[in-house]
What does this fold into?
Amino acid sequence: MYTTGEKLQLIVQFHEEVPKLFNQYSLSEKHASRDNEDLPSAVLNGFASTLADNNSIGKQRTQSKVEDDEDDEVAEDIEQMVQHFNRPEDTEVGVVLSFQGSVRVRVTESFQEDVSLMFESFLHRNGTLYTCFTQNGTRMYFDDENGIVPFPEELYGEGKFINTQNKPDKAAGDIKQDINGSSGYLENERTSSFYIPGKGMTMTYIFEERTNVCKYFDSDSGAWLILPLLWEANMDFIKHRVEQVKDALPSITDYKEILAALRLCNYDPDEVISMFYAMFGDSLAAIPEQNIESMSFTRDVYEKERQIENLKNQLEERERDLENMRLKCKHLEEEKDHLIRRTEVLQNQVDQLQSEHEKFLKEISEFYRKSSETPNPGPSTLPLKKEVFLKLIKEAHEINVCNNQLRVVAVHDLSDMGQQLKNVQNLMVNMKKSNHELEEIRALYQRETLERKLLYNQLQELRGNIRVFCRCRRDDGKGEHLAFPSDEDILVNHNGSKKRFRFDKVFLPQCTQEDVYEGTLPIIKSCADGYNVCILAYGQTGSGKTYTMMGNDQRPGVNIRSIRELLRICQERERIKYTIKISMLEIYNETLRDLLSQNGNTQLEIRSQGKTIFMPGLTETEVLTENDIKTTMSLGEKNRTVASTKMNTER
Ligand SMILES: Nc1ncnc2c1ncn2[C@@H]1O[C@H](COP(=O)(O)OP(=O)(O)OP(=O)(O)O)[C@@H](O)[C@H]1O
It folds into this structure.
């Protein structure tokens, strides 16, 4: 994992010259681990009970849980075969099945006959289990495509029949008698035999016993339900007991196996230890190194799962905090804007009052000046008439009144202005405080965003740095060769044999371009956080690599959608300056060609310096908008098409 600062580059390779190792490694690794995991449970749980008519079996019937996909398939096969032998509706058929032992089909009185079929299991060396039976001297089996067909002869040399026609021995009969004291066709229903390495064929019997069961109260259904194994594994009470068993028997590495044994033994670790000793004896003393490794690996997986869960919770909590802060920030910003507007209004009022005040003072001083300049007509020079004199006194009085009124108004206005100034000062102080608070919240927000990003990328790393997805293309012309038992598995049916492949995710033929893109979205986000990411399409010619990566105008592929998302993230993060550059190159017949060069045909060389691999002269085109991307990519596409046409003509 490298951090690359601000430079992001998405290199898309188109051709299938990419080493196959990449895919094969992850496939074989996963498949191998699954095989190891499944073997004990496939064998131990190989008991299916399918009941066409429960009543016909009475109280003794056994309902075993088939916990494995393969077991399911076998049970299904058997059911299909039984249907093949089924009679019309008026016939009751009671069936007791054990696919490792024998199967009896009892037909009631209306048929007046008993039909007994012996079922056999054939274990192919690739792990496929075939359930066969013999009809008219021919060994048959149920094939998913063709129904019931003769068992292919070529398979005989590729595997072996297990527990073929194992008749229960005397001991089994004795136990049966002791326990039930009954006889009849149900006699061996719980009896079977099983091959134990080192011990040979060993008789088994299903005992009915009371055991403690750990349940939880499910408030949705209002019922007490059995805890799934994985949940139970995380309970301190259980963990402690599992550790006790592990400490005593380090060679027992399968966590699930210990848990299952604990369940069986009433959660008594001593009993579990005794049971394992009885089963495996001295071989328990030898501790193969790889078992210890695998044990610590299992522990690591649980630990990682817990970490992922914690990280997820932390991430959610941070996101909630961030949302609150974002709201608070927004609120403070609005308050700040409001205060600024209010301050501006008040400032205008103050300015207006001040100019009015100045104007008023001017008027007063003008008035005084004029009144002092008015010549005092002396009694000697101007004989003052009585009326004029009275008029002047009246006017002087009025002016005095006016003057006093103006003084009152001026004093009032001045105190008003003082108050307003005080308000403005308070507002300014508040605004500074809010600004400070805003800065603090902004810093906190940035810190939280950074932490969220780190947690997010940590989560991605924990989920696995290399993820292999498989997209299956619709092909209406060909029959159904693929089955999809889960989101992560593909079952390939080839000439009657089935092979299971496991991926991080399987996209069914009906999955859309959006679905596939959704799968890649998390790593696009990591790319914007400065991590190197690579999305690679690999597959047979015509399998849909170009369609998935490029798509068309109506259904754009992963490339266009990813860069669209990158552009969106870059625009959202205003404070960071991102540069997005595109390079396109093609590898064909061991030759590298720069698809964005001027002539579209420049050959390139690969060089390495330390751990860095680069191609000197590879064109990098900067893109700013989605249109730029489309133009650049269609230029690359055009050069690619032209080049391949040329090559075709040359051949
Ligand atoms: N999921 C799909 N849905 C619809 N059409 C598809 C799908 N996948 C592929 N196709 C179509 O199948 C054809 C072959 O696909 P595409 O060219 O993508 O294969 P390719 O793996 O890139 O082949 P090559 O290796 O020869 O370049 C194209 O016409 C494409 O439109």
